[in-house]
Structure formats: structure tokens, C-alpha cells
Amino acid sequence: MNFNVRRRIVAGAIACAVAGAALASSHREAPFITTRPKVDGTDFYMFNSYEAGRTGYVTLIASYQPFEEPQGGPNYYTMDPNALYEIMIDNNGDGVEELTFQFRFTTVDQGLSVMAGTKSVPVPLTNIGSIGPITTSANSGQNVAETYSLTLVRGDRRSGTAQPITDADTGNTSFPKPLDNIGAKSIPDYASYAAGFIRNITIPGCGKPGRVFVGQRQDGFVVNLGETFDLVNIKYPVEELAPMGMNARQLAPNSLAGYNVTSIALEVPASCLTAGGDPVIGGWTTASLRQATVLNPQPESAKSVASVGPITTSPTGAAVQGGAWSQVSRLGMPLVNELVIGLPDKDRFNASPPKSDAQFADYVTNPSLPVLLQVLFGAAGVKAPNVYPRTDLEAAFLTGVAGLNQPVKATPAEELRLNTSTAITPIASQNDLGVLGGDLSGFPNGRRPIDDVVDITLRVAMGVLLSPFDGSAKDPDPASDASRQLHYTDGAEPSPANYLAVFPYLNTALAGSPTSAND
pTM to 2 decimals? Predict the structure, then answer.
């Protein structure tokens, strides 16, 4: 591929900023959201489905609840029944949602008890017997059950036309969610058990059925968190520094390898997402909470909440929520709030819609991470590009890239953008560096689970797109030529073996106890 073409295609894959921020795709990315892990979006993926026989479909995956420890019982990682989880689609480039998929969750305590002497006493566990393989919550040993509803809103997500999405096989409007992977004695074959919760869905106004799955999966994001937090304490931050024969991208641990997340996965016909003949869509995920919360409510305080709007009560009775929805989490392009948005504005970014992103433009054009890396590794030849404003970072970040994933009419807005007409790269041929590695169906043209967005981001931030590198009058910064061509890495590389080739693509959740039940 011609370098100038590649430069246009990947320009703006994402900007890096904020010294000391986490190189994690939205794990604990803003001060407020650290207090609400159930609504903390960790990753958002959007790509043309590459499962065999699913050409013409788009997969959308929004993962929530960072750092789920597999052994995290007895109260596992249920979703928040008082929250609204949403996936938005902008299909005309105006920075506003035209389609919104809304998920609401319900948790039911079955009230299982045992006879202790002469008294029936409620048990403290999620289950008291073996579970599965089943596809409904009805099981004599299951004490806690989750279900969810799925709604499609056309137009404004709060005032548009809302219609229920139903199970294509049963017509039900309520979908079951599997238990988390407690362990092999509780759920002997978790992979088969979880697969039973993949449902065909009827989407209003769509001529073909889609699919949905909500449940616990392995965290698919790969990053060397600990050493990065420690002032980028990475032995070989660029491939060229590693000894001959060593792959610097495989010399550091994946800090998320032992954790699960809860993933909301949708597969929708591309024709049901696009509009007006434009194959490009933008997408992002959000979570919202009610504006007012009363903890441990008494009847009087509950009435005061009711005065500000609709109220919902938690299953435990520990809180009452009321008022309008307030957005507290947002994720489109990976690494934005972590590495682009400054600390004073992180919570504000999470609460803002894409159409308002002009207020954050300075964080894109004047990133600080390159300066930090120069301070830390200047002796090794690392030099921050002395080019401001960094216009090379703007295209995909705000508008999409002409010829790749820019809509016909593009209003500047931070969204993950996908050209649904791009040819699919078979899974065996996918390059984890995405477009930067010559794979046009990868990041930033959407995002697949395999895409190493950390390494891509580091290289873009350090100026790989600021061509030419020839010292000529057109060279934007001859002094940084050598540094701009280095292969920056956090040392942790995704492995294709850790992902599925079929929907929902993220791997089976890690078990909380040994893989075989004790006899």
C-alpha cells in the first residue's frame, strides 16, 4: 500500500495524552465511574461479522464491569437493574443517534431456603445445585436469575419511536441471561450452557433476524497495565530495542488475562443499520442512571424521590432511584477518555454526546503522551514530534477517513466508524495492527477483538503518519524522523487463540474454581 494512502486511512486512529493514565480501553477511565463499576463500559467493538455464513451482518459488542474476578462470589456480576445500557448508531454522519438499542435488566432472588432444624432459612448462595445446560432461568438449584428486555428506538433515544425487539423463535420480549461461570461443579459445561443463551431476534423494520447474547466472557482487551502505570516501566518500549530474535510485542504480561467482563453482543444485518445508500455507520455505547438516589430508603424519603420523576427500587431494597436518565459512561473509539481527555474533563466527556465533541478538540491537537515518552526514553532515541496542531490525528477521530470509513456527510464527532461494505478479512489472515498493518477491515475501520489498539495508538501518537521522512521542505519535523518510524509497543500482543471464530467472538468466561469438579 502506498504510504500516503495508508497515512490518510489511519490518520487519527486516536490521539494519546494524559501522563500516567491507564492504557486500558475504558477500564476505570474517569473518577466518577470508578464508583459505579456495574455501568463502567470497558470496550466497544463494531465490525463486519466474519463467522462463516454471516456475510452482510455487523457485530456490535459493548462490554461492562471491568476486572471481574472469576471467583467473585457469592454475589457475582449481575447487571444494574436500575441502569439503562444503550448502543447507538449514527447512519447519516450528523453526530446524533438514528438507532438506539436499549437494554434493561431484572434480577430476581428465587428465595431458596433449607431447613435448619425446625426453621426454613434463606441460603446465602447464588445456586444450591448443578445448573444447565438450559436456556431459561427455571432451575430448581438456581437462586438468582437475570433477564433483560431489548428495545429499538428510532430517532432521539429519549423521545423517538420505541419498539420491542422479540425472540424470533418464541415471540418473547424477555430474554434470559446466563449465570456467571461459577465453576465446573455448579455448571459442568459452561461453554455449551452459555451458547444456549444466544437468541435469534426479530428487529422491527428489519427483514432478516439478528442475534443477541448477554453474559460473562473473558476480557478480550490485551494490555500491559502494571508496567505502563509505573511511568511506562517497559524494558523494550520499541521493537528495535529488543535483542535480536526477540519479539518485543510478546515480552510483557497481559494484565487482563485473568479477568472476565459482562458483554452485550448484537448481530444485526448491515442493511438494517445503514441509510440513504451510505455504507458507513458510527457507533458508541453508553450507560445511564437516574439522577436521584436515596440509600436505605424510608417511606418518606421514597416519596420525595417520586416527586422528581419515575422511581425504581433495587431488588435488595437498598436504594430508590428517580428522575430523568443521566449518562455516566460513554465509549466509542478506544482509549479516548484514558489517553486523550484531561483529568478535569473526564467525567464531562462521559456525560457528553458525540455532537458536542468540539469542546474537547485541544486534547486531540496537542497530545501530551509523546512529550512524556520523550522525557522517559529520550536516551533511546525517542523524540516527540514538534508539530502543532497535530492535524494528522483528526480524521478518524472526528470525521472518519475519506476513502475508508468517512460518511458522505460528516459532522465532526467522536464515534467508532465502520464501512459496512469493506471486504471481510478471514480470521486466519487478520492483522492485529489493523489498517496500519495493511488490513483494511481492522481498526480504525471499526474494531475487532484481535485489533491491538494500544500499539496502533502509540505509533500514531509518536507521529508515524507525519510523512515524509526525508528531511525535505515537506518533512513536518526532520528532527523526529527516526523516532517517528520506531515500532512502539506496550509489550503485550493479542493471540488469535484467545478469541472465538463465531458469535459472540469473545471467549468463554474463565471459571471461578478448577476446571473439573471435585468428586
Answer: 0.90
